[in-house]
Amino acid sequence: MEDNIVLEAKVMWSQLDANMHLRHSAYADFAAQARLELMDHMQFGFNELARLRIGPVLFREELKYLKEVRPNELIKVSCLLKSCYEDGSRWSFLQKVYRQDGTEAAIIHADGAWIDLDKRKLTGLPEEAMQRFMQIPQTPDFILQPTKTKL
Q1: Residue 24 phi, psi (nearest 5)
Q2: Domain boundaries in the chain?
Q3: pTM of the model
C-alpha cells in the first residue's frame, strides 16, 4: 500500500449498489474528497482557491476496478500528482483505493485544470500558488509539461 494516504473512510449503506458492494459513483466521490483533503493539507484548499478566485475543473476521470469493496469496510485513498503544465493550468492525479486489508481495489486517473471564477476561462496559477501546488507529492514518473500558449 502506498504511504501517501490522504483519506480514510467507512463505506456507508447509501454508497452500495444492488450487489452489496461500493457503487461506481462512490469511488469517484471518494477520489474527489481525497484530492480536496490533499489540497487542504497543502494550504491550497477551498479558502485559498476562493481568495485566488479560481476553481478546479475536471475534464476526465477514469476508474479501473480491481477488487470489490463491501459494506462497512474501511477504505484508504492515496493521491499523487502525475503531471502538470509549468504554469499549473492543467494537471493529472493518480489515485488508488485500498480495502482495509491493504488490497488495491481501484485505480483512478483524473485530469483537470483551473478556471478563473470571474472571467469563466481556464487559467494558470499565480506564482505563489504554483509553488505550493508543486509541493504536492508526485508519482515517481511525474512529468512537468511545457505550457501551451493558448488555454
Answers
A1: -60, -45
A2: 5-137
A3: 0.92
Rounded-to-5 percentages of helix, strand, coil across the chain: 25, 45, 35
Closest C-alpha among 64, 74, 55 to residue 28: 64
- Specify the fold of 5-137: Thiol Ester Dehydrase; Chain A (3.10.129)
Cβ-proximal residues to 136 (8 Å cutoff; 6+ apart), any chain: 38, 39, 42, 44, 80, 81
Q: Reply yes or no on whether the pLDDT at 2 is more than 80.
A: no
Q: Which three cell numbers stand for residue 8?
A: 480514510
Q: How far apart are CA 15 and CA 118, in angstroms?
A: 35
The Cα–Cα gap between 3 and 78 comes to: 8
